[in-house]
């Protein structure tokens, strides 16, 4: 995707309804572009590096000091969902913060992965109990699409690679409009970081249905405007090397030709 510039949202795609945050993390430069209507671009704190992911570039966090910070006032009155594509580093044991809201203690959304990538956790209010999901294959050391949905009085639901993997009741409520987000860090009262690579971080002020989590795992660029199809042909026996920007194409084999479809719109 960096070869084609910054992508744009498709305003007609329902997946973008009530989108609070969308940080692809695949661009170059010293900030994380927010594609949501709020445009709350993120600051890369303590110089996280850009690395090659399996869907274009990703942002690598060191697990001890680096994170992404945004600032934008947002209200979440009755529902919340988030997704991210992550690769958890092998050093991770517990309390690896994926996403947290910036608020005072006891009013902070917190989404964690712990126990070497085998447990997902979510707090709507950190002073209250959290919901957890376990029993799924560890996401340690591999790229995984993870997701969570929550609403007051309802069970929190967790997803891995588009599949529902469990959940539970989450006490508390989001009492005040948040003032921003931290990706890869939770700061009150403790400090927890995420060690590994992150990209395609999204949050919504609504409850995503199961089908949306499946759709986002099957097509991580869902909701992005697409341009006209580009056809690339190769003669029989010729070698054709796609760029590392695999997020820009979907490939099908056709006899002696390769067709690259769904190029991201600029």
Could you characterize the architecture of this molecule?
With 266 residues, this protein is mostly beta strands. Helix content is 3%, strand content 41%. The chain is built from one helix and 20 strands. It has one helix at residues 210-218; strands at residues 19-23, 31-32, 42-45, 49-52, 57-62, 67-74, 80-88, 96-101, 110-114, 119-123, 131-133, 143-150, 155-160, 163-169, 178-183, 185-186, 192-193, 195-204, 250-254, 257-261. Strands 1, 4, 5, 7, 12, 13, 14 and 18 form an eight-stranded antiparallel sheet that branches. An eight-stranded antiparallel sheet has the order 2-3-6-15-8-9-10-11, with no helix packed on it. A two-stranded antiparallel sheet has the order 16-17. The radius of gyration is 18 Å and the shape is globular.
Count every helix, treating DSSP H or I runs of 4 or more residues as helices: 1
Morphology call: globular
Radius of gyration: 18 Å
Oligomeric description of these chains: single chain
Short description:
With 266 residues, the chain is mainly beta. The protein is built from one helix and 20 strands.
């Amino acid at each position: 995707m960096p070869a084609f510039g910054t992508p744009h949202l498709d305003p007609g795609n329902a997946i973008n309804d009530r989108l609070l945050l969308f940080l692809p993390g695949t661009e170059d430069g010293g900030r994380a572009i927010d594609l949501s209507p709020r445009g709350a671009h993120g600051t890369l704190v303590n110089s996280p590096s850009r690395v090659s992911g399996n869907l274009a570039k990703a942002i690598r966090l060191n697990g001890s000091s680096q994170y992404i910070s945004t600032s934008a006032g947002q209200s979440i009155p009755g529902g919340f969902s988030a997704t991210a594509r992550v690769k958890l580093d092998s050093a991770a044991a517990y309390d690896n913060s994926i996403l947290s809201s910036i608020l005072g203690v006891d009013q902070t959304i917190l989404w964690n992965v712990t126990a070497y990538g085998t447990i997902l956790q979510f707090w709507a209010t950190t002073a209250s109990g959290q919901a957890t999901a376990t029993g799924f294959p560890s996401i340690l050391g591999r790229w995984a699409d993870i997701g969570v949905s929550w609403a007051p009085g309802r069970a929190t639901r967790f997803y891995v690679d588009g599949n529902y993997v469990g959940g539970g009741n989450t006490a508390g409520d989001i009492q005040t409009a948040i003032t921003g987000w931290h990706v890869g860090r939770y700061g009150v009262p403790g400090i927890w970081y995420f060690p590994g690579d992150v990209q395609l971080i999204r949050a919504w002020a609504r409850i995503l249905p199961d089908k949306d989590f499946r759709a986002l795992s099957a097509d991580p660029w869902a909701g992005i405007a697409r341009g006209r199809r580009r056809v690339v042909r190769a003669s029989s026996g010729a070698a054709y090397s796609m760029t590392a920007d695999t997020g820009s194409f979907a490939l099908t084999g056709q006899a002696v030709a390769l067709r690259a479809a769904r190029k991201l719109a600029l």
